[in-house]
Structure formats: structure tokens, C-alpha cells
Amino acid sequence: MAATFERILPTPVRPEQCRLVAEASGEVVGYIAARLHAAAGPPEGQFDRDRTRSSVWVDALMVRASDHRRGVGSTLLEAVEDWAMSRDAATIELDTFARKPLSVPFYERLGYQRHAIVFRKRLT
């Protein structure tokens, strides 16, 4: 996780981005990155009606393995939800791997609902 932080944190944060870290005993134990997407316009012609208002996409949520189930991830996600609401976002979205035994129940406990299915076909 340290290598990821060293790569990401020095890059400037734009106004439509939110990046937060969680610390414990002076060490970074978690990180979240999200970005605001502007509304797509009036509902006429929109495939997804949710896009008539701005939304937030969570690009990454990482918690050090030894700090799982200690509230780090939920605290970071709640902070991003507050940030999203302060920007009048209608929805917050993220994705995770279906085979992650902790991720799917974690997000569902926090009120997130399964919304889409992604298909992948390996070509090589």
C-alpha cells in the first residue's frame, strides 16, 4: 500500500476530486479517492435518468489488511459521501470484484446496492 500512496499523493488534487487518508499511530492505514461527475443534461434522450444530476465515482478505497473490520473503510466512505452531498451529487458509485469475500458484504452493509454487471472476455 505504501508504494501506491507514494505514487498517488504527490499529484495535485483538482476541485472535482476528493482524496483522503486514514491514520493510526502516525501511519497511513487507509486511502480513498473519488471524483465528481457533472450532470449529463436534461432527461430527454438520457439513457440513465440518474445522470440528470451530478454523481460521484469512488476510484479507490484501500485499507491496510491488519486494519480491516476496524471502521477505517466505512469512515473514509462516509467522509466521501459527505463531500458528495456538499456538492449536490445525487448518487455515489463504485465497483469491486465479485470474488472479494469482504468487499461485497461491506458495501451492502453501508447501503450500497448492486446496480450493474460487467462482462469480460479475454482475447489473448
Please describe what this structure looks like.
Helices cover 23% and strands 25% of the residues. The protein has 124 residues and is α+β, with helices and mostly antiparallel strands. The longest helix has 15 residues, at 72-86. It is globular.
Summarize the topology.
Elements lengths: L1 H7 L8 E8 L2 E11 L17 E9 L8 H15 L4 E3 L9 H7 L15
Question: Keyphrases for this structure?
Answer:
124 residues; four-stranded mixed sheet; single chain; alpha+beta
Low-pLDDT windows of residues? none
List the strand order in the largest sheet. Answer: 1-2-3-4
**What share of residues is helical?**
10-25%
Number of helices: 3
What structural category do the secondary elements indicate? alpha+beta
**Radius of gyration, rounded?**
16 Å
Count of β-strands: 4
CA(first)-CA(last) distance:
29 Å
Sheet-strand content, in percent, reads 25-35%
**What does the main sheet amount to?**
4 strands, mixed
Order of helices and strands: HEEEHEH
**What is the average per-residue confidence, as pLDDT, rounded to a whole number?**
86
**What is the molecular shape?**
globular
